[in-house]
Amino acid sequence: MPENQKKLIVIVPMPGTYLLDIAGPLDVFTAADKMLSETAADNDIGYEIVLASPLSTRKVATKGGLEFTCPAKVDELDRPIDTLIVAGFSIRNLETGRRFCNWLHDAYPKMRRIGSVCIGTYALAEAGILHGRQATTHWEHSQEFQRRYPDIQVDTNPFYTRDGNVYTSGGVASGIDLALALVEEDYGRDIALAAARKLVLFLKRTGYQSQFSSLLQIHSMENSIAGKLQPWMMQHLQHDLTVEELATHSNMSLRNFNRVFLRETGMTPAKFVEKLRIEVARKYLEDSDLSMEQIAEKCGLGGVVSMRRTFMRHMMVSPSDYRRTFRTSLHTVD
Asked: pLDDT of 275-318, one tens digit each?
């Protein structure tokens, strides 16, 4: 692509996706282009952003029911694509997206880079673009995604990942994080920061997706030992909850309890108890006015220092930072 030609950014809004999947990256690239037009001497520096429908029609409906008409369909694009971003995907209708995935497979080698927002990773995976690569997706779909595509290394901690010229992002708002990173990669930190300030965003958010995801999928364990023990453990978190005590409460031998627990949950009883303590601590941090000392005691996490160390290991953010970020809106921010 000539140096003096604007980079063509193609955003593909998949039907039934959240509007923010589309609007987030669109607004970031638009804001960055405006900054560049005001500061760059060359008017051809910047971005041209195009929404391109993956369907046989240019009309695409979002999850919220808003329908809009794209300026083009993907197979009508006749200019070299610098960056293509797949915004969302419909897991339930993988077959209906086959036509687009086939087009994506053929078009990808001609692009400088490609990315996805949220479960747009499914489109990249179905097109064979993620084969043998590292990727992230929405934390809620990570286990199903890994089962479906075992050759892809899934890491749902980061907001976005890069493997070569393939970029994937996690939850809906992570598309904004990815777009800002791409702008910084293209035109430097100052332009990316100016765009972030214009949109009142963080250039780089602290933390990881694990802040949002549930550490324990209790609902899928209702008939397991862990599922049956969980209500009792919740009432006794301030106690030691040794493996021996858990086995006794389950009327099982220690050896058999350990074996069955690991098979059913994929983790040891001690790790399960630790994760449960953190889940309960999260709720106290979000919804209560309890001090750190009180939360640590109620959850059996020892003192404040011990709780912070354990919380950081699981959530990659301190309890105080977590509280500032996720405290319910009814609480007054100091």
From this structure: 999 989 989 998 899 999 999 999 999 999 999 999 998 888 89
* 8-state DSSP, 136: -
Domains of the chain: 7-211 (3.40.50.880), 218-326 (1.10.10.60)
Residue 251 CA to chain centroid, in angstroms?
Answer: 40
Residue numbers of the chain with a pLDDT score lower than 50: 1-2, 219, 332-334
Alpha helices in 108-253 (DSSP H): 121-126, 142-148, 174-187, 189-198, 225-235, 243-249
| C-alpha closest to that of 169 among 11, 286, 60 | 11
Please state the pTM of the whole predicted model.
0.74
Burial of 291 from C-beta contacts in 10 A (0-12 / 13-18 / 19+):
exposed
E strand residue ranges, the chain: 7-13, 47-53, 59-61, 67-69, 72-73, 83-87, 113-117, 134-135, 153-154, 160-163, 166-169
- What is the C-alpha to C-alpha distance for residues 254 and 248, in angstroms, rounded to an integer? 8
Give every CB contact of residue 42 below 8 A, 6+ residues apart in sequence: 4
